[in-house]
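Build the 3D complex.
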Amino acid sequence: MSGRRESDAINRLMPEGLETIAEMEAESRPGREGEPHGDDSLMERFDRWGLRRYSAWDGVKAVALAVLLLLLFAGGAVRKAADELKPGLGRDIVKAVGSPSGWVADQLPLAGARRDLTSWLSPNQELTGRGFAAGGVSPGRTASVLPPVPAAPQPLDRLLVTGDSLSTPLDIEIARKLADRGSGVEVTRDPHLATGISNAGLVDWSRLSTTQAADDHPDAVVMFIGANEGYSMPGPGGAQVSCCGPQWEAIFRSRVSQMMGNYLGGGAQRVYWLTVPTQRDPARKPIADDVNRAIEEAASAYGPAVRVVDLRPTFTPGDTYRDSISISGNQTIVRQSDGIHLNQTGASVAADLVLAALDRDFTY
Amino acid sequence: MLFPTVEFAIFFPIVLALSWALMPRQQLWKPFIVVASYVFYAAADPRFCFLLAAITLVSQGAAVAIQRTEDERLRKWFTAGGVAFDLGALAVFKYYGFFVSDVSDALDSIGLGMPLPLVTIALPVGVSFFSFQAVTYVVDVKRRQTEPASLLDAAVYLSFFPHLVAGPIVRASEFLPQLREPRDPNRVAVGAGLSLVALGLIKKVMIADYLGRTLVDPVFAVPQSYGAPDAILAAYGYAAQIFCDFSGYTDMAIGLALLMGFVFPQNFNSPYRATGFRDFWRRWHMTLSRFLRDYLYIPLGGNRKGRIRTYLNLMLTMALGGLWHGAAWNFVAWGAYQGTGLSAEHAIKGRLGRIFPGWLRWFVTFNLIVVGWILFRSTSIAALGDYMSALVRSGPATLYSVPVVGAILLVIGLQLLPERPMEGIELRLGRLQPLLLGAALALVVVVVGATVPSQGVPPFIYFRF
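Done.
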């Protein structure tokens, strides 16, 4: 009797004509052998609702219209999406669609109207500053024109942790460890997934670094990037230089140097730049080697203002990829299954290395 | 390939048109849709196609072998073999690292450390879903609830791209009958399909990702930096985020399938209007909860073996259900928490209605569910402790804003409205002319696209599972 009252009370909460508790209970009965499941009746809900039916070709035409409108109003987005993809057949297909649709969209005023009408919805910061120099080698700022680095440790109030997908969960681990120490350091986490210094078509890290320095006013910057490098970049004379080799490395070095200068010129006292540990896929090793050499060479021009936090001796000693390392005597997995990123434990180890470097230069 | 991507926007219209063009010729349509689904899956990693094919072949072999014999002992063995293969694949790819590192730590702690092969194994996207669907196929054939399909039909069933990577978990008995005849090209729920796709996009990108970016991720990442007002808001925010993220995916999956002429089971039914844990699990991820009920809880004995055994079965079912969500102890703890709630409710069933009014049962249930989400979202037991500390620490309210609080209230409030008006809105949208809805879909994509940050659209939460 009480169960009945409970069901009645709950049913009063439910709208008339929809599922009652009794119906739900009936649905939950397991089907007997040879009978369909009790709740297969849920499959008929669209009929029960009496939804209007159209022909399949009405559906195809509706989807085609949606796609056509999108190409007209946002064809450039398709072209941009191709830049975000890893090289391969998928990227080639998207590019084959994006190039002509982007061209058509460029010729029409619709994309501009769309941007004007929807820009207020965008959460993105307006990028400022100078982009990477076409032609490759840009001097950027040099140590000589930057303010001198304080000799004594300075108070650390604001820390920016940024980069591509490599920078997370490192950013979370650094923030947690600083909070655990009871510091009042304000940590800004700003990962830009799928981006690369060599792929300015997606995000121009020169402009982004200038904007970050101006908006966040960090005392120090931690940079961990390098999972999406290897894209061709315009070299002197404008010709595309493909990875890898001394010429590609020189262009990459100048871009890294420009970013370091942007942070330091924007007010950061120090930049901590992490090297990329060896990755599982041997095909990625030449890229990582060029990236790491470029980081070290670019940093050397800035003296103590830029410190390279080298992760390779800890995670891949001997330049040999491994999933696990010894932590407190126990072998522990520190990489994600993609063989590129650090997992949470690995990020915690990397965060300790970053904090050790920060301890030399800052108090908090 | 994710639904809200440019790649999928190119893939789907082509596949949709070809699918309807080939539909009358089933001998062409079926191979076509299998190939299209494998192309969809290969976009993530082509190697995983071999796993999907292996699960299809073994499950089909088991189903045919089961049907060909009347010997119950043999039928059981074939069923066990098929299920063991499907779940074994899931275990290896999803739980190997978790199991080995925990066993290694346990052995180390008692001085029996030994070098176990510590390697990371890439998790094939969707393996949790299609392996469970394969289990339903084998077991339903064993239970004589469905006939074995042809190998091609089984391949279509397991690989059909709208449900391939994150469900809903469609049972063989629901899908295979839809393959017996070509889908009727004159009875397609175009309006409902397009509306669901648009609604799913809005839920995922405009609500779930927004709440994640501005509220949930910062607080759960470093709860030590926040006080109770922000921690409480973030817990409710996560309840809204995970609902919009997962039900948004489901809406898109169901909508895309409708456009192709197929019906998937319902997966969400206003879960936050539940007035108890049992009610919640009838409304939240309904296709998983019925899988757990039909293929785990009831085979374990259900409630037929006494009170204590019922509670044990509930706890075991929900703890394993928790573990299905991810290879980590916080998911087991979340499952055990749900099992405890269900057991407690079972113990006092019938008395609740007498003692407490409906609104109070709703209020208590909703808040207990939100507490459960804190367990679910915390990345470790230590992080959970930090979050619980934040919940009782005084501090300023730094993350309250009209859009954030409004989004949470909207998501939860809409579920509390009588369902008839919502149904009415869906019906009205479903009756609009398809071309008008196509234009509206383009508008929704433009508006939703404008809200995507430069960091991109994060993956669906349930892709990890």
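Chain B has a mean pLDDT of 88.
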